[in-house]
Amino acid sequence: KYVVLGHSERRQYFGETDAIINAKIKKAIAAGITPIFCIGETKDERLGGILEPVLEIQLKGGLKDLTPEEVSNLVIAYEPVWAIGTGRTATPQAAQHVHAALRACLTEADAEAAAKTPLLYGGSVKPDNAHELFSQPDIDGGLIGGAALKPEQFVDIINAANQE
After folding, report:
1. Which of 6, 66, 115, 158 has the fewest CB atoms within 10 Å, measured from its CB?
2. Can 97 be counted among the known catalytic residues?
3. What is the pLDDT of residues 111-141, one digit of tens each?
4. What number of other Cβ atoms are within 10 A of residue 21's Cβ?
5. Is 7 a known active-site residue?
6. In sequence order, what are the residues at sequence separation of 6 or more whose Cβ sits closer than 8 angstroms to the Cβ of residue 106?
7. Which of 16, 41, 45, 79 is an active site residue?
């Protein structure tokens, strides 16, 4: 029913470009599969002050030539590369800032689609940070990695999500 596309490891190890990811998103949609479209910046990009341009390029490249209806029927996951599997996570405020910028970028193309498109955070979500992350206005949920493999932790994350 869902497929994760654009994950940083696919970009890094398999050389997947925004154009390749865009083609995969279109194929998934045509097959009736909901894409979970991942975007994220490296630590150097964040520290270099190019976080938002990097994410905007990834977002626009992955969504190129999609209709507003197609965009509103997919899921976008912000996964800062520097946080994946490291145990480090963006602060809730930093994650909200990025999600708000992504929502604004989507709104430029189509406000109605932007409002309907779920934005997930996926960067070392754990039971102790899930509630605060999910309580941010533009974070609609989480794309959970390693914590999903630990039933007790995953249940705690689900409970945090259900409080929102």
Report:
1. 115
2. no
3. 999 999 999 999 889 999 999 999 999 999 9
4. 24
5. yes
6. 59, 71, 76, 113, 114, 117
7. 79
CA 134 to CA 163: how far, in whole Å?
A: 9
Q: Which residue is listed with tokens 């960067």? A: 123
Both tokens assigned to 5: 């596309």
List, in sequence order, every beta strand (DSSP E) within 15-160.
Answer: 34-39, 75-78, 119-121, 141-142
Distance CA 66, CA 44 (A): 30
Choice among 7, 16, 41, 45 that is catalytic: 7
- Residue 30 CA to residue 158 CA, distance in Å, equals 30
Tell me the pairing of strands 141-142 and 75-78: unpaired
| 34-39 vs 141-142, strand pairing mode | unpaired
CA-to-CA separations, 44 to 6, 49, 113, 141, in angstroms, rounded: 19, 9, 31, 26
Question: Confidence band (pLDDT; 50, 70, 90) for 164?
Answer: low
pTM of the model: 0.92
CA distances (Å), origin 60, targets 23, 158, 161, 163: 13, 30, 28, 32
